UniProtKB/TrEMBL annotation:
<protein>
    <submittedName>
        <fullName>3-oxoacyl-ACP reductase</fullName>
    </submittedName>
</protein>
<dbReference type="InterPro" id="IPR057326">
    <property type="entry name" value="KR_dom"/>
</dbReference>
<dbReference type="InterPro" id="IPR002347">
    <property type="entry name" value="SDR_fam"/>
</dbReference>
<comment type="similarity">
    <text>Belongs to the short-chain dehydrogenases/reductases (SDR) family.</text>
</comment>
<dbReference type="Pfam" id="PF13561">
    <property type="entry name" value="adh_short_C2"/>
</dbReference>
<feature type="domain" description="Ketoreductase">
    <location>
        <begin position="218"/>
        <end position="391"/>
    </location>
</feature>
<dbReference type="InterPro" id="IPR036291">
    <property type="entry name" value="NAD(P)-bd_dom_sf"/>
</dbReference>
Length: 454
């Protein structure tokens, strides 16, 4: 696999000289994940299971896109199993397909995928909306099945779900794009998660197009682009064909210039907490903004008992208040493109909470709230707004975490390793593309199914 783990010595040793010992002692055995440098898709067949009409439609779609497809269990090696449970009406309807998936697991190759397809459970509907409890139980059952299976996957394999709203065709454009994302190396560090397709919006994209330049000709703004995850986002968006404008504080000016030169982008030295940041960015870009990535973020950890106003206010100021102002500023400046997308960085700390991070968790939970609440506005504009919640990612920031906490952070995920900045960037490029417009207001965890809040 092309990308090794630059900071993770254990994963290197467990795949090298200590491989046998690790196996003998039953220690975590993280597998190097396949990433885009290894190619977008594997070459083995895809097994499509389930009795629904959508299963037939997707089997044909895969064939049309050059995949080798099987419709019945086989002893051949497989790159993926697709399980269609979208017509399950009572919990008993799950058993046939679930057990068939189980029978196919031993045939899966390294870094394989299981993808379930289902309808939205309706558990988030207003309490006054009557839904059939047995139907809701069946649909919600798919969630539990997928999440548990993700914990059981081996050798770098993942399990995720595509969930489609009632009234939206199972093969809506964004459901198909979600399939390409989950099948491909772009989702290396996404496991135990669900992509919820709420509308029929979204541009059609073939599997091959998805592996290519999904953002060709688009203009993207990335905040905090000088280093870490932001620099990887800039590089990935540029690889996908976007013109990138990187924003970072003047103190990071040299690093920003270097990053932007490397990706053929343009640098803007600006503190995003500047009240005029929105209009400054609009003026710098000088044209429509198709994608805004709210990546700049800081931590100032302290137990709440020891928290001071400086730490609290600076974290909330950069991580959420500046984002709210920036979005409003770009709207005011009339800077959005025809189908604008926003992707903001949340964190699993914003979902599960984390000791010593009340300020950070408040800001990141705020990002999730802001994202859900902005969905209607961006749907009206023909675009989308989503968030990505990284787990433990190997960056300069996490390199400074004390060694034992760092080891724990890596190994408590189902993939038993930290993710790379590129993994977060791939999810952002996907959610920021026109193909994913039908996914709106959601937060996608990129965490290798970290146990924190899972
Ligand atoms: P990092 O500290 O390496 O990079 C953050 C960048 O943002 C820096 O270049 C910094 O100069 C810039 N920045 C900070 N304040 C700014 C401001 N006011 N205006 C403009 N730029 C500013 O951090 P990272 O690890 O790359 O994290 C990037 C994002 O991902 C953050 O929002 C972080 O909260 C989130 N995140 C990271 C992890 C992880 O494991 N590293 C996990 C969850 C979430």
């Amino acid at each position: 696999m092309a990308d090794s783990h630059p900071h993770d010595r254990y994963t290197e040793l467990a795949n090298g000289p200590l491989k046998l010992l690790v196996k003998k002692l039953g220690l975590p055995a993280p597998v190097p994940l396949r990433r885009m440098a290894d190619g977008a898709y594997l070459s083995e067949p895809v097994l499509v299971l389930g009795p629904s009409a959508a299963a037939d439609a997707y089997a044909q779609l895969l064939l049309d896109n050059g995949f080798d497809v099987r419709r019945t269990p086989t002893s051949e090696k497989l790159q993926a199993v697709l399980a269609f449970l979208d017509e399950a009406a009572v919990p008993g309807d799950l058993s046939g397909t679930a057990l068939e998936v189980g029978g196919a697991l031993r045939s899966l190759t390294r870094c394989s995928r299981v993808i379930t397809f289902s309808r939205m459970p309706g558990t988030t509907a207003h309490p006054s909306t009557e839904i059939d409890p047995a139907l809701a139980a069946a649909r919600n059952g798919v969630t539990g099945l997928t999440r548990s299976l993700a914990h059981e996957m081996r050798a770098g394999g993942t399990a995720n779900g595509i969930v489609v709203a009632d009234g939206v065709p199972m093969d809506a454009p964004s459901a198909r794009a979600a399939l390409w994302f989950l099948l491909s190396s772009k989702s290396a560090y996404v496991s135990g998660q669900f992509l919820e397709v709420g509308t029929e919006a979204g541009a059609d994209v073939t599997a091959q197009e998805f592996a290519g330049r999904t953002l060709a000709g688009r203009t993207a703004v990335v905040t905090g682009a000088a280093r870490g995850i932001g620099a990887a986002i800039a590089a990935t968006l540029a690889r996908e064909g976007a013109h990138v404008h990187g924003v970072d504080v003047p103190q990071a000016g040299d690093a920003l210039a270097k990053t932007m030169n490397a990706v053929g982008g343009r640098a803007l030295q600006l503190d995003i907490t500047d009240p005029e940041a929105g209009s400054a960015i609009a003026a710098h870009v000088g044209g429509p903004v198709d994608l805004l990535v709210n990546n700049a973020g800081i931590t100032r950890d302290r137990m709440l008992a020891n928290m001071d106003a400086g730490r609290w206010d600076s974290v909330l100021g950069v991580n959420i208040e500046a984002q709210l102002r920036l979005g409003a500023g770009l709207t005011e400046a009339g800077a959005w493109g025809m189908t604008p997308h926003v992707v903001s960085l949340a964190s699993i700390s914003g979902i599960a909470g984390n000791r010593g991070q009340t300020n950070y968790s408040a800001s990141k939970a705020g990002v999730i709230g802001m994202t859900a609440a902005s969905a209607a506005q961006f749907a009206r504009l023909g675009g989308s707004v989503n968030a990505v919640a990284p787990g433990f990612i190997e960056t300069e920031m996490t390199k400074k975490v004390p060694v034992l906490t760092r080891e724990l952070g890596r190994r408590i995920s189902s993939l038993q390793q930290g993710g790379l900045p590129q993994d977060v960037a791939e999810a952002i490029a996907f959610l920021g593309s026109d193909a994913a417009t039908g996914i709106n207001g959601s937060t996608l965890r990129v965490c290798g199914q970290n146990m924190m809040g899972a």
